[in-house]
Design a protein that fits this description.
Creatine Amidinohydrolase; four-stranded antiparallel β-sheet; binds cobalt (II) ion; globular; binds 2-amino-4-trifluoromethylsulfanyl-butyric acid
Length: 260
């Protein structure tokens, strides 16, 4: 069932989303060679819990043990933070975080360079972020879920990369994963129709090599089958009334006068 959120619920999700964005910004400030992913996770959890009514969405979800997913280089998503995983110059680190606030969730991810990274890694980040924003731009009343995936796929494949197909974006609200699924590929005008008040997480995972993935023996970490580099960017958005581009709920609070 696809649930439509009230304006009030969307404001709560935007408040959760601002904590998500601030958490990613906090993590970004600590990403450097020599830092462990466990340290990043600890800082993120402490920061989220410092907000009254807020807690990490992931911890305990499907028995996941941490606040962040931290996925390095050929790891696509769901890497578990560990004191043994220490960042090195030239790595790419994907950080995914969700926050529950007063009964509703928001979800976002970004991939960060660790120090200086090779040109191909830099390009992968730019393309994956552009693919996300192309998908976001299609989340309008009257469009279909397939329009989002199609836009993501065009940008990623147009740059010579592949999109992961076995993992998808999702509706989000009082449950972390809600209907509909939001694939990062598709055909225009196919799939469920978008309606005002829908809140969805759009989250392209883009590989430099082929689209194939597999899960490691820890049962969580998803890696590229061919060992190629992967990036992940995600926003939670709300489809709005007037047919315009959606409200992005996982942006930093930039103060009054800025309504993005
Ligand atoms: N952000 C991930 C997603 O959208 C959620 C991680 S699920 C968890 O699917 F179980 F790892 F928390
Ligand atoms: Co998500």
């Amino acid at each position: 069932m696809i649930t439509i959120k009230s304006p009030r619920e969307i404001e709560t999700m935007a408040a959760a989303g601002r904590i998500v964005a601030a958490t990613l910004a906090l993590v970004a400030r600590h990403v450097r060679p020599g830092v462990s992913t466990e340290e990043l996770d600890r800082r993120a959890e402490e920061f989220i819990r410092s907000h009254p009514g807020a807690r990490p969405s992931f911890k305990g979800l499907y028995d996941y043990p941490a606040t962040l997913c931290t996925s390095i280089n050929q790891e696509v998503v769901h890497g578990i933070p560990s004191p043994k995983r220490v960042l090195s110059e030239g790595d790419l680190l994907s950080v995914d975080v969700g926050v529950w606030l007063d009964g509703l969730h928001a979800d976002s991810a970004a991939t960060f360079p660790v120090g200086r990274v090779p040109p191909e890694a830099q390009r992968l980040l730019q393309v994956t972020q552009a693919a996300l924003m192309a998908g976001v731009g299609q989340a309008r009343v009257g469009n279909h879920v397939g329009d989002i995936g199609h836009a993501v796929q065009e940008v990623a494949e147009g740059a010579g990369y592949s999109v992961v197909r076995e993992l998808v974006g999702h509706g989000i609200g009082s449950s972390f994963h809600e209907e509909p699924q939001i694939p990062n590929y598709g055909k225009p005008k196919r799939g469920p129709r978008l309606v005002a008040g829908m809140t969805i997480a759009i989250e392209p995972m883009v590989n430099v090599g082929g689209p194939g993935i597999r899960t490691l023996d820890d049962k969580w970490t998803v890696v590229t089958e061919d060992g190629s580099l992967s990036a992940h960017f995600e926003h939670t958005v709300a489809v709005v009334e007037n047919g315009g581009p959606p409200r992005i709920l996982t942006l930093a609070d930039r103060g009054p006068g800025v309504n993005l």
